[in-house]
Amino acid sequence: MRIIAVIPARYEASRFPGKLMQLLGDKTVIYTTYMNVAETGLFDEVLVATDSQIIFDEIKSHGGNVVMTGQHETGSDRIAEAIKELDCDIVLNVQGDEPFVKSDPLSQLISVFKDDFDNKISLASLKIKMSSKEDIENPNHVKVITDQDDFALYFSRSVIPFPREVHPDVEYFRHVGVYAFRKNALLRFADLPMRPLEISEKIECIRYLEYGMKIKMIETDFLGVGIDVPEDLEKAKEILKSSENGGKSAN
User: Fold this and answer.
1) Per the CB 3.0–4.6 Å rule, which of 80, 170, 228, 251 could disulfide with 190?
2) Whole-angstrom distance, CA of residue 190 vs CA of residue 188
C-alpha cells in the first residue's frame, strides 16, 4: 500500500491573505508544515499542491516536492488534480496552515485503511470533543454527528445535534480538517458536481455524503493551531518559542 501526503496551498485567503508565506521563526508557515509532515516518516511521498507561483518557488527553493495546479474551489479538488497520475493507494490531505501537525493522528487515519479489508471506507477524518457553549455555537467550527460505528451522518456549521431537550449523554464534536482518502474515491469526488448542501454550508466533505460515500471518523485530542487570522499566527509563534526554550509544544 503506497501512502502519500498532499498539502493543498493557495496564496489568497479571505481572512488572512498570504498567510502561508508568513514567517514562523525563520521559516514560512507552508514550509514549516511541509517539513513537519515529511519528518513524521509515515509517507512514501509528501508534496505541496498550489496554484501560486510564490508558494511553488518557496517550496522549490528548499528542495521540496511541489506541483502547480489550476484554480479550485476546494482542497480536495486541488489534490485530485495533483495525484491523478501518481502511483498511490491512500492520500492524506494535510492543511497548509496547520504547521504543528502530529504523527499520532495521521497514523490513526492510515490504520483505518489497513484494517478495512473489504474496502468499504472511502474517506477517514478526525473529530475532537467540544465542551464549551462558545465553541459549540461558533459557526467557524464545523460540527459532525456520527452513527454508532463512528461513520459520519452529517457536518454543519450550525449546532448539531440541536439541544431541544438537554440529555447528559449527548456529546458535541468538532471536525478537524485532516483527511485520508482512497485514491479512487478522491478522483470520483473531483468528477462530481457540488450539490446545494455543500454550497450552502461551504463544507467539502458533505459532497462525499451526498453521493453515498462512507466517512469514518476517528476521535482525537489533537486540534493543532490552524492559522486563519493574524492572531493565530501570533499564537503559533508563542508555541514555537516555547518549544525552542524547552517548553511544551503542540508537536
Assistant:
1) 80
2) 5
Q: What is the DSSP letter of 194?
A: P
* Cell reading at 66: 511541489
Q: In the numeric block, which cell numbers belong to residue 126?
A: 478526525
Does 78 have pLDDT greater than 80?
yes
Residue 215: its H or E element: strand 215-219
Q: Grid coordinates standing for 149? A: 460505528
Going by the DSSP 8-state scheme, the letter that residue 55 receives in this structure is H
Q: How far apart (Å, rounded) are the C-alpha atoms in residues 186 and 183?
A: 5
Where would I find the H helices in 92-182?
103-114, 133-137
Joined together, the cell numbers standing for residue 173 give 464534536
194-244 residue pLDDT tens: 999 999 999 999 999 999 999 999 999 877 777 877 888 888 888 888 777
**Is the backbone peptide bond immediately before 161 cis, with ω within 30 degrees of 0?**
yes
Q: What is the pLDDT of residues 123-161, one digit of tens each?
A: 999 999 999 999 999 998 899 999 999 999 999 999 999
Phi, psi dihedral angles at 248 (to 5 degrees)? -80, 130
Kindly tell me the burial class for residue 4, based on how many C-beta atoms sit within 10 Å of its own C-beta (0-12, 13-18, 19 or more).
buried
If we measure between CA atoms, which residue out of 72, 202, 120, 230 comes closest to residue 82?
72
